[in-house]
Amino acid sequence: MRFLELNGRAPDAAEIHRLATLNYGHFTSMQVRDRGVRGLALHFARLADGNEEFFGWRPGLDDEHRLRQLILHAMGDETDASVRVSYVPGADPAGPPDVVVAVAEPASDEPGPPLRVRIDPKFRRDWPEHKHSATMGLWRAQRLAQAAGFDDALSVGPDGMVREGTTWNVAFLKGDEVVWPQAPMLKGVTMVLLQIAMTMQGVQWGIRPVPVSELPDFTAAIAVNSRTVRQEIASIDDLKYPAGDKMAGLMAETWESVPFDAL
What we know:
Layout: E1 2-6, H1 13-21, E2 26-32, E3 36-37, H2 40-55, H3 63-75, E4 81-88, E5 98-104, E6 115-120, H4 136-147, E7 152-156, E8 162-165, E9 169-174, E10 177-181, H5 189-201, E11 205-208, E12 220-224, E13 231-236, E14 239-240, H6 244-255, E15 261-262
């Protein structure tokens, strides 16, 4: 299934042209299961923050209800799906932004083979706190990593602190503690939900600056995003992480405790 709606209807040819040729906006991606989404309020908060940052527009009190209706309308009879909600410039520059809802097949949460990751000190996302359409830099970093024989890239700032992967947040294991980097980066919905669930489940965790020099002290690393919480990282540059399966199991067990919110 592949559906795309603009403000609750199929876009016409002129609107499709506008969407395809103007790369400006922001979005959130979510996995819908049985018409429910984990962390729905966090997704809506992300969109509201993006609207204020990129459009100078603060949604009204009924915007969340409108978004729910737009998502459900685009899904039609489907109950499970991958959904991306984007805000893009409207035809009237002085008016509110348009809403694009793209619906696709539900993504499997099964992780791929453990990743071999390369540190890329040049890869840094613009407006790192927001999930926006300026994604060329991250895809270039991934392509360069793959050309060099790796699977993906990890951003490290000019201060030598670990930030984030191309399309994922990273977490490390040190003893029994899960460590999340504190740096300019996107606070992924999945990451935030895991942190809340870890607190509720009594899992030891912390968020703090992680210098590159500390990477050899960790025993495992995991990439998390809206698709999966248990993507093992086998290595970062020449550092190997042997306890990836242990950490992946911990993340998966924690994630199971996170409830779904009804659309």
